Amino acid sequence: MSFYETSSKNKRDRILHAALMLFRSKGYFKTSVHDIREQADVSIGLIYRYFKNKEEIAQTLYQELSEDVFVNIEKNIAQHTNTHDRCRAIMAYYAQLTEDFPEVVDFIFFTRHKEILPTAPPVCTGKIQGLIRQTIQEGIKNGELRPMSPAAAGPSFLGGMMRLIHLRLMGVVQEPLPTLLEEMWESAWRAVKA
Amino acid sequence: MSFYETSSKNKRDRILHAALMLFRSKGYFKTSVHDIREQADVSIGLIYRYFKNKEEIAQTLYQELSEDVFVNIEKNIAQHTNTHDRCRAIMAYYAQLTEDFPEVVDFIFFTRHKEILPTAPPVCTGKIQGLIRQTIQEGIKNGELRPMSPAAAGPSFLGGMMRLIHLRLMGVVQEPLPTLLEEMWESAWRAVKA
DNA sequence: GTCTATATAGTGATAGAC
DNA sequence: GTCTATCACTATATAGAC
Questions:
Q1: Å from A107 (CA) to D3 (C1')?
Q2: How far does CA B60 lie from the centroid of its chain?
Q3: Contact B112 A112 (CB under 8 A)
Q4: Do the domains A55-192 and A1-51 match in fold?
Q5: For the whole model, what pTM was predicted?
Q6: pLDDT for A63-97, tens place per residue?
Q7: Does the domain at residues B1-51 carry the CATH identifier 3.40.30.120?
Q8: Residue B32: CB less than 7 A from any atom in strand D
Q9: CATH number assigned to the domain covering A55-192
Q10: What one-character-per-residue DSSP string does B40-81 give?
Q11: Does CATH place domain B54-192 in 1.10.357.10?
Q12: Is A194 on the interface with B (CB under 8 A)?
C-alpha cells in the first residue's frame, strides 16, 4: 500500500501525502514548505530531515507514484494476451484511477515537470510511455492494428482518453470517467484497428 | 498582426512577447518580473505602469492569444460547409500553429491557468472549446458523425491531435506535426465518422 | 512615458535543543 | 526522530525623479 492510498501514521508518508494534495489543489509553486508542514502536521525541521529540499519532495513523489502506476499497467498487460484486451484494460485502469486518485493522475501525467525539476528532468512518464508504445507496436506487427508511424500510433489510440482525463481533472467534464469508458473505447478502437 | 508574430517597437507588446517567451522556456513561476524586464529591454517601472502585476501579464496574454486563435478557428469553420472539412481544417491549423508558434499553443492549451490565475480563472480555452463542441454537435445532428455523448465526442475527435501536440511541445515527438497530420486525421475520422 | 532606487514580505533552508 | 527559532535571500511591488 502506497502512501497515497492510506492515511499513514508514518510521518514521511504523511509529508508526501500532504505535498501531493497541496500540489493538486494549489500547484507546486504556490505550495510553500510551510503549507506542507501545516497540512502534514509535522515540523519544518522534520521535512528537511527526510528531504533535501522542496524539489526532492516532488521528485520522490514522481518516482514512487509513477513506479506504482507502471507496475499496475504491467499487471494489466500480463493478464491479457492481445493488444485489444491489453489497451482496453489500460484505459479502464486510467479511468478508475482518475476517479479514485485524481491527484496522482494529475501529478504524473499533467504536471509540468520540466519547470519543477530543473535538474535531470525525467522524460515525462518515460517508463510508462515506453511500455504502452511497445504494446501498441506489437499490435501493429501482429496485424491487430493497422500500420501507423510510431509517433502517431500512441496518440491515436490513447490520446482521446488522455484528453478526456485532462478535461475531467480541470473540472470541465462532470461525468465520472467509467461512465464514458465504453464510448471512448469504441472511438479508440475504431481509430487504430486493422 | 499580433505581438507574437512580429518584433514590435511598441514597448507594451515587447513586454508581452518577452513574457510569453520566458513562460514557455522557464515557466511562469520561475520567470521573475526582472527576467521579463531584461528580455524586453525596458525598466521595471514601465512594466508596472502597463500591468498591475505579473498575474495581469499572464491574463492579458491569455486573452489576446486565445482571442486570436478563436478568430482563426472561426475563419476555418466559415470557409467550409461540413463538419468533415471544418475539423480537418482546424487540425491542420493546430499542427501548423504548433510549429510556427509553439509558445502560443503551449500557453493557451497546456498551461495550468488555475494555478497562475487564482482570481476568476477562465475556463481553460472556454470560447475555443465551445466553438469546436458546437461544430461537432452539428456533425452528429446532420448524420456526418455517429451519435456520441457531448463529453466523449470532442476528445474522441481531436484528443489524439491534442495529445500529439502535447508530446511535441515536451520534446518527445521529433517529427514536425504537418508530417503526421494525414495519419492523425485518418485516425480521428475513423473514430467518429457515422 | 520612462527610469532608478528602495521597501516589504514571504519562502526556502539551517542551527541547535531535546 | 522531532521540535522551535531564526537566517538569508529573492522577488514583487512602490515611490518618486526626469
A1: 31
A2: 14
A3: yes
A4: no
A5: 0.96
A6: 999 999 999 999 999 999 999 999 999 999 999 99
A7: no
A8: yes
A9: 1.10.357.10
A10: HT--HHHHHHH-SSHHHHHHHHHHHHHHHHHHHHHHHHHT-S
A11: yes
A12: no
Q: Nearest nucleotide (C1') to the CA of residue B32?
A: D11
Confidence at residue A119, expressed as pLDDT on a 0 to 100 scale: 67
Angle at alpha carbon of residue B86, lines to B80 and B92, rounded to 5°:
115
| B36-49: average pLDDT | 97
Chain B partners of A159 at a C-beta cutoff of 8 Å?
Answer: 159-164
Contact residues, chain B, for A152 at CB < 8 Å:
164, 180, 183-184, 187
- For chain A, the domains span 1-51, 55-192
Min CA distance, B90 vs chain A (Å)? Answer: 16
What is the spatial distance, in angstroms and rounded to an integer, between the CA atom of B18 and the C1' atom of C9? Answer: 27
pLDDT at B111 over 70: yes
Tell the residue number behind the cell numbers 475504431, with chain if given.
Answer: A190
Distance from C-alpha of A89 to C-alpha of A110, rounded to nearest angstrom: 21
Nearest CA in chain A to B111: A112
pLDDT interval class at B121 (50, 70, 90) = low
Whole-number Å distance between alpha carbons of A56 and B95: 36
pLDDT at A171: 93
